[in-house]
């Protein structure tokens, strides 16, 4: 994986870029930030995941074998950090029409993630799967999340109807080691259960059972995922800003925020990476969007992530990115080698002025379009950067996950906020409990009813 920050700078894009003196000034904070990152390493338990999951990975692989041998479908039930990592892994590495492939080509079960409570969306799944032949992975770290618990209840109802009391094998749970309703259910009914390690927040959990069971079921090389993350960890734990891409990303993005760039666009040029942009959107938004600073004062920090897809969004959003306000940083994600090389053949009819395309490849076209867009936004003086993956494989994807996690943690240090809590999300969860009549939330329900009458 290569990262190029040149187009963030005043030297390449002109007056709206980051100046040398901005970097030097913010770099003065690096020793303190580095010290904090080292001191908090144990509390950031997700940083150890590429190293300490061997025992659980053995168990996960055994479970994945059982699933692939005994079922036709594997469905993840979860939301936010409990779902987005699996989605990013799935499309980032596997065949883009994986579920439609014949089983021998897939080499395993079909794969689905349900991360919403749209009744039509949930029901649509039941129209294409046989629940008897489906293993459900229910993931909720808190063990209480209303969306996941309601999906789980629907699934249990369907399984009971189809299998009587023999549904235990169709359910796997992943949750906290002791807290939450899901843990109680796990203890009471003895479902196969994996644990989200302490100190691993939802959006940082892809390299623990939350994402790894999906990876194993999909025959994704978990060791390569870890190897990519470990290599990135080596670079991202250096104190020297110029050798540490996570510190540089955090510094430049925070400098951009100071200049009014309140939007972070992630624009991969690969269909399979759109879910990676989705995963990043949650990571960046939920970690950095904070009302309070570490000192308790109101700061209202954060930068709005936007996911865009190259080249598709060149024909929708790029006009704005090129000629609109200077309020964005665009991160292009480039892939050097796709799984496929697709040639544009000699056409059997006279293609007239389009004939220059004959004999070229679609691969060259997508790469050229990325370069062209990068050129256009750079010429327009808009801050942009490029992340290049050599291929869309487990090692590169593992490195990308870890890089973005480290950059987010470092940005939290620059912004002097807690990147690991999510009080705004919790407030919404509590209000939903109240509106759905959960015991203990009567006062909140009354408050909400009063507010709706105003
Ligand atoms: O990053 C986070 O903490 C959140 O996005 C959670 O992943 C999300 O709210 C789901 O929570 P849980 O896993 O507790 O169901």
From TrEMBL:
Belongs to the GPI family. Pathway: Carbohydrate degradation; glycolysis; D-glyceraldehyde 3-phosphate and glycerone phosphate from D-glucose: step 2/4; Carbohydrate biosynthesis; gluconeogenesis. It catalyses: alpha-D-glucose 6-phosphate = beta-D-fructose 6-phosphate. It is found in: Cytoplasm. Catalyzes the reversible isomerization of glucose-6-phosphate to fructose-6-phosphate. Its main location: cytoplasm. InterPro entries: G6P_Isomerase, SIS_dom_sf, SIS_PGI_1, SIS_PGI_2. Its EC number is 5.3.1.9. One of its GO terms (molecular function) is glucose-6-phosphate isomerase activity. Pfam families: PGI. GO terms for cellular component: cytosol. It comes from Christensenella massiliensis. GO terms for biological process: gluconeogenesis; glucose 6-phosphate metabolic process; glycolytic process. Keywords: Cytoplasm, Gluconeogenesis, Glycolysis, Isomerase. The active site is at 286 (proton donor), 315, 429. This is Glucose-6-phosphate isomerase.
């Amino acid at each position: 994986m290569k990262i190029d920050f040149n187009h963030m700078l005043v030297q390449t894009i002109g007056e709206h870029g980051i100046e040398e003196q901005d970097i030097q000034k913010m770099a003065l904070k690096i020793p303190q930030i580095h010290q904090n990152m080292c001191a908090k390493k144990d509390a950031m338990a997700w940083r150890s995941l590429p190293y300490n999951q061997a025992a659980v990975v053995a168990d996960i692989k055994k479970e994945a074998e059982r699933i692939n041998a005994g079922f036709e479908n594997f469905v993840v039930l979860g939301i936010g950090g409990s779902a987005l990592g699996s989605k990013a892994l799935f499309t980032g590495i596997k065949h883009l029409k994986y579920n439609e492939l014949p089983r021998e080509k897939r080499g395993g079960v079909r794969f689905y993630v349900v991360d919403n409570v749209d009744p039509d969306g949930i029901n649509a799944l039941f129209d294409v799967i046989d629940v008897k032949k489906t293993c459900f992975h229910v993931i909720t770290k808190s063990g209480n999340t209303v969306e996941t618990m309601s999906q789980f209840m629907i699934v249990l109802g369907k399984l009971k109807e189809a299998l009587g009391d023999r549904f235990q094998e169709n359910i796997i749970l992943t949750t906290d080691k002791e807290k939450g309703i899901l843990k109680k259910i796990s203890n009471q009914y003895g479902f196969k259960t994996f644990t989200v390690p302490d100190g691993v927040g939802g959006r940082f959990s892809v390299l623990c059972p939350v994402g790894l069971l999906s990876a194993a079921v999909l025959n994704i090389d978990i060791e390569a995922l870890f190897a990519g993350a470990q290599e990135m960890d080596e670079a991202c734990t250096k104190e020297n800003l110029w050798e540490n891409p996570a510190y540089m990303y955090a510094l430049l993005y925070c400098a951009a925020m100071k200049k009014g760039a309140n939007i972070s666009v992630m624009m991969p040029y690969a269909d399979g990476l759109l879910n990676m942009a989705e995963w990043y959107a949650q990571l960046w938004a939920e970690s950095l969007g904070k009302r309070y600073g570490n000192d308790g004062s109101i700061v209202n920090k954060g930068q709005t992530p936007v996911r865009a897809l190259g080249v598709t969004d060149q024909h929708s959003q790029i006009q704005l990115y090129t000629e609109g306000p200077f309020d964005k940083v665009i991160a292009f994600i480039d892939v050097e080698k796709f799984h496929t090389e697709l040639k544009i053949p000699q056409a059997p009819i006279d293609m007239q002025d389009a004939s220059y395309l004959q004999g070229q490849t679609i691969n060259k076209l997508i790469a050229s379009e990325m370069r062209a867009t990068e050129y256009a936004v750079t010429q327009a003086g808009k801050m942009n950067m490029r992340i290049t993956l050599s291929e869309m494989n487990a090692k590169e994807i593992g490195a990308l996950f870890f890089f973005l996690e480290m950059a987010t943690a470092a940005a939290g240090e620059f912004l002097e906020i807690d990147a690991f809590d999510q009080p705004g999300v919790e407030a919404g969860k509590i209000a939903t409990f109240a509106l759905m009549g959960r015991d203990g939330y009567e006062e909140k329900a009354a408050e909400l009813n009063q507010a709706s009458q105003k």
